């Protein structure tokens, strides 16, 4: 059972763009990304949104612009 789980984990980590049929090779990279890439960017997206709210929320940029 552990071997099957390990095989699935490795298969998900491998880039799949090389094994696509020629008619599907022009799809966006987001469409062919694996679960690890999506999980990483899902986590990173939370950080980016938090920073945006911190710097752009409630006159944040205008205050910084005046201090420069």
Structural class: mainly alpha
Q: Please, how many helices?
A: 4
* CA distance, first residue to last residue: 61 Å
Count of individual beta strands: 0
Rounded average pLDDT: 78
Element order, helices and strands? Answer: HHHH
What share of residues is helical? 55-70%
Low-confidence stretches: none
Shape: flat
Largest beta-sheet details: none
Share of residues in strands:
under 5%
**Radius of gyration (Å):** 20 Å
Write the SSE topology:
Layout (H helix, E strand, L loop, with lengths): L1 H12 L15 H4 L2 H22 L3 H8 L1
Account of the protein in words:
The chain is mainly α and 68 residues long. It has helices at residues 2-13, 29-32, 35-56, 60-67.
What distinguishing features does this structure have?
68% helix, 68 residues, mainly alpha, flat
What is shown here, in short?
This protein has 68 residues and is an all-alpha fold.
């Amino acid at each position: 059972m552990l071997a099957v789980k390990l095989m699935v984990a490795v298969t998900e980590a491998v880039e799949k763009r090389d094994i696509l049929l020629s008619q599907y090779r022009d799809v966006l990279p987001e469409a062919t990304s694996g679960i690890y890439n999506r999980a990483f960017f899902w986590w990173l997206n939370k950080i980016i949104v938090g920073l945006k709210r911190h710097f752009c929320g409630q006159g944040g940029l205008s205050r910084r612009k005046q201090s420069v």
